[in-house]
Design goal:
Number of strands: 6
CATH superfamily: Winged helix-like DNA-binding domain superfamily/Winged helix DNA-binding domain
Structural class: alpha+beta
Bound molecules: zinc ion
CATH class: Mainly Alpha
Strand order of the largest sheet: 1-3-2
CATH architecture: Orthogonal Bundle
Distance between the termini: 19 Å
Shape: globular
Number of domains: 1
Length: 179
């Protein structure tokens, strides 16, 4: 189960009364996020790995960039929003603002370390897997699941407009739990 989903299930599953819903939701969500972070911290790559990754991408490895890169790339392939990364950063004592996180995510994207997902959701999702692949989007849950590129074949593509060539086909399949 994806960590974000686990967090959601855990927080929503523990709500005892409607009156306390938002408070309980917020509190438990933060607690679980920080527990998850403790687990992640034990297996994170060294700061040197992140610094090298940033330098290789042409970015100066500032303290904040290294801290955010550690969070982003320590847990395998991930899809996350600026808000989620900001919350995780707070848990490890990185006091960067949401605006800084957002700017850093866009700098990482421009440097080729991340890809922006075009999911038509209210929030922008960033993907740490920049190789070609597609996605399932679980409606109502803000959950994104990778589909390997070889698992889909796209036929009968139209000709690209005059003077253009197709660079990449990005398939998003929307799913929902069976009722
Ligand atoms: Zn992906």
């Amino acid at each position: 189960m994806k960590e974000a989903t686990l967090r959601k299930v855990l927080s929503e599953g523990s709500i005892e009364s409607h009156a306390h819903k938002s408070y309980m939701n917020e509190t438990k969500s933060n607690v679980w996020t920080c527990i998850n972070m403790d687990i992640a911290q034990r297996s994170k790559p060294s700061d040197r790995d992140s610094a090298a990754r940033l330098r290789q991408a042409g970015l100066r490895p500032t303290r904040q960039r290294v801290a955010l890169a550690d969070l982003l790339f320590a847990k395998g392939d991930r899809h996350l929003t600026a808000e989620e990364l900001h919350e995780e950063a707070g848990c490890i004592g990185c006091s960067c603002s949401l605006a800084t996180v957002y700017n850093t995510l866009h700098q990482f994207t421009e440097a080729g370390l991340l890809r922006v997902l075009s999911l038509e959701t209210a929030k922008t999702y960033f993907d740490t897997n920049v190789s070609d692949h597609h996605h399932f989007l679980v409606e109502g849950r803000n959950e994104v699941v990778d589909i390997p590129v070889g698992d889909i074949s796209v036929n009968n593509l139209p000709e690209a407009p005059e003077g253009m060539e197709i660079t990449y086909v990005d398939v998003v399949i929307r799913v929902r739990p069976k009722s």
